[in-house]
Amino acid sequence: MxxxxxxxxxxxxxxxxxxFSCGAWLAACPGCVVVTVLAGLPPATMAAPPWDAGAGFAxxxxxxxxRREEDRSALAMLRAxxxxxxxxxxxxxxxxxxxxxxxxxxxxxxxxxxxxVLAPAGVxxxxxxxxxxxxxxxxxxxxxxxxxxxxxxxxRRTPGQLQRQLMNWHAAGLAATPQxxxxxxxxxxxxxxxxxxxxxxxxxFGSAQLADLSAPERYWRWLAxxxxxxxxxxxxxxxxxx
Length: 242
Hints:
Elements (H helix, E strand, L loop, with lengths): L8 E4 L4 H12 L4 E4 L13 H5 L5 H18 L3 E4 L13 H14 L5 E4 L5 H16 L5 E4 L10 H11 L3 E5 L5 H11 L11 H6 L6 E5 L19
Parallel strand pairs: 1-2, 1-4, 2-3, 4-5
Antiparallel strand pairs: 5-7, 6-7
């Protein structure tokens, strides 16, 4: 984890995942850019789906607009800059084309050269799997870059799912090596304040999920032995519920 090194480009599926999963890293590395892939605005006439309704929103668009402001506030606390892409959250029922996601992520990565990239490991949730697959394609096209795949906070607690993903990587011909960042109490405290900015989302999680937000962050580095081309597979499908 950097204190004096370059900031990172952090790829986030939703408007909270980067802070939930990498908040301590962001606290230690001022100047990071956080790219939320599924931050697009749904139609103004779309009613709130169950998750957004549970958070108290009357419409899908109102939910995204409010969550963008939460994201802006949280990232400002960590001296990070938000970049919101126009793809829709899966709960809005309009599946994003994997090829379009992969192209958009690759373009963002190319536009931010010479900085490390942090990407979701893709544990369990449908949207996380889609964004992870897009990041995997971008990684394949820029393997000279420093990439780390972060464990998706909250979802990594789903029994067996992290282990399943590690097995998938191994089967694809990838050696996944754990990376342990430096941990400072001040980083954790700043992360906690930033997490609290996502006030609409936190009441929807259970106690075990909330506890995971203060657990140590974990990252994995991919290596393809002998420069081999990994056999990256398409994402599995799971529920869109958080």
